[in-house]
From TrEMBL:
DUF222 domain boundaries: 34-334
Organism the protein comes from: Mycolicibacterium rhodesiae (Mycobacterium rhodesiae)
Protein name: Maturase
InterPro entries: DUF222, HNH_nuc
Pfam family membership, one: DUF222
Length: 426
């Protein structure tokens, strides 16, 4: 314990000296040499940090390591999980019996530990093996990993990527992929949040079955009409919109978290009357008021209206009475998503949570004591010692267990108007 603290103190002092040094005292060519040494030192520190991650253990009251790591280092949980995965692949491993094992990517791990690779190099190598078909044998895999690690030490990541592509073709010249290979690659993801103009960009990797079904749908509903000025892409977009719009609210879809599968939208009376501004969905999407009004007629959605001045709930429009499910709709409208600090999980994927006292411990299902929490954060309260409570302004405060280096407080992510001090907005 003392040795690493002393070493970190010395490192901090050395960094201060490097930061205070003037690179301009060197001749121009030698400045690049100094920058190279600095880059090497930074990479070594990152590699050492990853290796130390393999020795971090949970203790009593401590949530899963990636959650603590994210708060302690102030990085995203996705980044924390990625660092843990990198450590598992690049750092030596220890079995439960104490036996030392080499890294999963031994040649890459050795170069990484020596400070010869950047994170981008590692991403290229990881992607190569992630995309490699299952029929490639272990001998070829070992040779490929060693080859890529060697080339990574002399190439930029973009150059290494080209080598990796050539090597992938060499190992799979006939382009054979199994059902499992294709299934592993399928997926749809939004590429970030909404853009400034309200539009969103997504990436779809479709398996043959999905594409064949979409092609059949597009043949009918994306076909050009007379005097149709839309582009091919715009027609396909509108065809997908029709496909989803005609299905939302259908009783055959069942329920999600106790509610019909449809849109739940929040707005203020003032914006609704003016026909301007934005409504907010339980998925966290800003919906222009003109779109909301246009969508209101043909579809069965749920609309919660608040007073834009007092925040008082005024009206809940719905296609049928839902009894206690009305509470969930108003919670989705009020909180919009998980209330745990920094959590971005939208309302659709959140659960109802008793803020003061859990129901199984005698808490009441009172709307003033209910809030929203995603499944992971709900488990923090049930199993990891977190506590929650309602503030006088209606926000939910989260408190970590004592002695655990986690960040508590409230969550403003789903309410960007609070970031600007517009507290009267819902």
């Amino acid at each position: 314990m003392g040795s690493i603290v002393a070493a970190l103190d010395a490192l901090d002092a050395a960094i201060e000296r490097v930061g205070a040094a003037d690179i301009e005292e060197l001749p121009p060519p030698e400045r690049f040499v100094a920058l190279e040494r600095l880059e090497h030192a930074v990479r070594r520190q990152v590699a050492i940090s990853h290796e130390q991650l393999t020795r971090v253990e949970r203790y009593e009251g401590c949530p899963p390591i990636p959650i603590v790591l994210a708060d302690a280092l102030r990085i995203s949980r996705a980044a924390a999980k990625r660092r843990m995965r990198d450590a598992e692949q690049l750092a030596p491993r220890t079995t439960l019996t104490g036996e030392q094992l080499p890294p999963l990517l031994p040649a890459t791990g050795k170069a990484w530990d020596a400070g010869l690779l950047d994170g981008e190099h590692v991403r290229v190598i990881q992607k190569f093996f992630r995309d490699l078909p299952d029929h490639v044998g272990p001998v070829e895999i070992e040779k490929a990993e060693r080859t890529l690690a060697e080339h990574a030490q002399t190439m930029r990541p973009d150059q290494l990527e080209k080598i990796a592509d050539r090597l992938a073709v060499h190992l799979n010249p006939d382009g054979k992929y199994s059902e499992e290979d294709r299934a592993r690659k399928r997926g749809f993801l939004w590429c970030g949040g909404q853009r400034g103009d309200g539009m969103s960009v997504g990436k779809l990797v479709a398996d043959p079955q999905l594409r064949s079904m979409l092609e059949a749908w597009f043949a009918k509903f994306a076909a050009p009409e007379s005097d149709d000025l839309r582009s091919h892409g715009q027609r396909q977009h509108d065809a997908l919109s029709r496909l989803v719009r005609d299905r939302l609210g259908d009783p055959k879809l069942g329920q999600h978290n106790g509610l019909p599968v449809t849109m739940i939208v929040t707005t203020t009376l003032q914006d609704l009357q003016a026909g301007a501004g934005h409504a907010v969905t339980a998925g966290g999407i800003l919906l222009p008021m003109t779109d909301l009004i246009r969508m209101a007629t043909p579809a069965n959605h749920y609309l919660a209206v608040f007073d834009g001045v007092t925040g008082q709930s005024l009206w809940l429009g719905r296609s049928k009475r839902l009894a206690s499910a009305d509470q969930r709709i108003m919670l989705l409208a009020k909180y919009r998503g998980c209330t745990a600090p920094g959590c971005t999980v939208p309302g659709y994927n959140s659960q109802v949570h008793h803020a003061a006292k859990d129901w199984k411990h005698g808490g009441t299902t009172d709307i003033d004591d209910l809030t929203l929490a995603c499944r992971c954060d709900n488990l923090l309260v049930e199993n990891e010692g977190w506590t929650t409570g309602q503030l006088s302004n209606g926000q939910t405060a989260w408190h970590p267990p004592p002695g655990v280096p986690l960040i508590g407080g409230t969550n403003d992510y789903h309410h960007p108007e609070r970031l600007l001090g517009d507290e009267d907005d819902p």
